Amino acid sequence: MNIGNYQLRDREESFINLNPLQTGGRTTPDARKAIISYIDGYSICDWCKGALHITTEPDIAGFLIDVSDFLGMDYALPTNGCREAKYGVMHAISKGGSILCDANMHYSSEISAERAGLKVYKVPNNGEPEYKVNPLDYAEKIEDIKKETGSYPDLVLLTHVDGEYGNLVDPKQVGKICKDYSVPFLLNTAYSSGRMEIKGKKLGADFIACSGHKSWASGGGNIGILAISEEWEEKIFKGGTNWKSKPIEILGCSSRGSSLMAMMASFPYVKERVKRWDEEVKKARYLVEELTKIDINPLGESPKNHDLIKIDTPVYDKIARGHKKKGYFLYYELKDRGIIGMKPGRTKRFKISTYGLSWDQVKYVAESFLEIGGD
What we know:
The chain folds into 2 domains: 29-273, 3-Layer(aba) Sandwich (Aspartate Aminotransferase, domain 2); 276-372, Alpha-Beta Complex (Aspartate Aminotransferase, domain 1). A hairpin with a 2-residue loop joins strand 1 and strand 2 (6-7). It has 14 helices and 14 strands. The longest helix has 16 residues, at 258-273. The strands form 4 sheets. It has a 7-stranded mixed beta sheet with strand order 4-10-9-8-7-5-6, sandwiched between helices. It has a 3-stranded antiparallel beta sheet with strand order 11-12-14, with helices on one face. The protein starts with a strand and ends with a helix. By secondary structure, the chain is α/β, with parallel strands linked by helices.
């Protein structure tokens, strides 16, 4: 159905969507109602008390207390996405020194660090096919930075689950290393918090950055969370000189509308679904096992510990070379079967996600991939 110059979107209603950017952000019915109700202007500020995070109608203040507890941290603020949460931390602690990150980090982590004036160093992965980051390598790289620059890095960042291979890295080991070196630790949970249970301080994290649209059932709006431990409140959440209630690092008030309400409305559902994380991992492992019955090779750690799956697919690339639709054949074959979420034209390597699918849907997806591959 077309309205004006755009087409109404029905991907979630009419298809099985495998897009890893979207599976964890699927909104709940309550979230959709909230989005419609708060879609106009600064409607979330109808009863503003001077700052977004202290507003009680709607109860944003209470929500942030609950989020802090959910993440095992002390304080939390909404942000305009995960990247703004990361940048806020980097900018607040930057001394013009360096930051140590994992090689699998999202591009926005590196850009945020550059914008904050930090020189970026990386802990390498072990290359194809696993691309795994060894958390113990952080200690060696911290020492290397000290030898090169004369000081330890200003900050360490770990991508808990990367968005390329879906590798899950143990934050506890990195947290312990950071504590030993007295270097603050930022954990990027864009693909983990909201999907699995996370208790940040128990993991040794000083800061947690979260993505609402990727993992908190908050849809496609720009919404994130920055959660911190108590010792960093004054530095990270510091207010302006003349505007004491307005945190400098998020420019006072961040997500001022329907995206925050969507996150709040979905939160009860998110708190329950993280308890079923083991089942989500089982679905991903099942699909990978089925796909390897033909010439498809998983990339990233094995067995899978996350729903994001990247695969190398020679079987489809071979078919594409002799198909009249070339590399687009797979996209249309899947769409004809009611499956979407892959970028058109991809037959060599691509990413998919099983998150939130029923077992019947996962088995149907597996059968469809195998059938198209000629099994």
